[in-house]
Amino acid sequence: MTKKETLREKVTHVVNEKLRPAIQMDGGDIDLVDVNEESGVVTVQLGGACVGCPMSHITLTLGVERELLAAIPEVTGIEVLE
To answer: Which positions of the chain have pLDDT values less than 70?
Structure first.
């Protein structure tokens, strides 16, 4: 019997395999802070060059949020720690 992935495991995979490499190419970084298994809300924190960058909001909405919502139907939203 195959173990079913938790929501945290799914999100971790997408962050580590798809999002982090793309963000790091521009000198930034992203850390997964929390995944609320009940509500589907994912909390992340941007680092590196993303801190203070005026484009970080676009990175979050058009990159991180869109990718997570498309890849994992259980994700309902993204929160960002400043």
So the answer is: 1-2
